[in-house]
Amino acid sequence: MNKLLLLPLLFILFLSSCKKDEPVLSTTMNLEVMKQKKSSTGEITVEPTSAIIHVWSAENREFDVNASPDIHFGSIYDKTTKSFQTMRYGAIGIRMREHIQPGRYFANVLLPKSSNKGSLAYSYTYFEIKKGENLDLTKIFSHDVESGVYEDWDLNK
After folding, report:
1. Is residue 50 part of a domain?
2. How many Cα atoms occupy the beta-carbon half-sphere of 41 within 13 Å?
C-alpha cells in the first residue's frame, strides 16, 4: 500500500523538477550621496557623505516639495491625487541599493543636521528605471552649499 502512494508522489516531484527555470532580470537602483570638500589650498575633492534618502513611486504623480512639511519623515504631497504619499524606500547613509520594480520614481536627499556648512541642504530628482536595468544615481553637493537650502540635482555632475 505504501508503494502505491509513493509512486504518484514521486511522479509529481519529477514533473515539478523538470520545469525550465526562467532567467531572473534584476532591476536595481544604486543611489550615492557625495559632497565636495575644499582644502586650505583651494583644491576641491569629492567624498561620500551621510544623508537621509527617501524614494517614492511617481507613476502618474506630480509631487510638490514646498507643500510637504513632513517630507523629511517620508511623506510628500501629490498634486495629482491631492493627497500625501508615503515613501516606498528609505535609507540613512552614504548609499542606498534597492531591488525595485520598473517604473518612474522620485528621490529626495537631505544632509543631516550638523554644525557644518550645508546642514539640512537637500536635493531631489525624478528618474525612470526599466526592467533588468541597473541604474546608478549620484548627488554631489557643493562644498559651499548653504544650510537648509535646495540644490539642483545636476549641479555638480
Report:
1. yes
2. 3
Task: Indicate whether 82 belongs to any domain.
Answer: yes
The 10s digit of each residue's pLDDT in 99-130 is 999 999 999 999 999 888 899 999 999 999 99
Q: Euclidean distance between the first and final Cα of the chain, in Å?
A: 73
Q: What percent of the chain has pLDDT over 70?
A: 84
Pairing of strands 51-57, 89-93: antiparallel
* Residue 42 resides in a domain: yes
- CB neighbour list of residue 17: distance below 8 Å, 6 or more residues apart: none
- Find the CATH number of the domain harbouring 86: 2.60.40.1120
Please report whether residue 5 resides in a domain.
no
Q: Which domain holds residue 100?
A: 25-141
Q: Going by C-beta distance under 8 Å and a sequence separation of 6 or more, which residues neighbour residue 93?
A: 50, 51, 53
pLDDT in tens, 14-41: 555 555 555 556 899 999 999 999 999 9
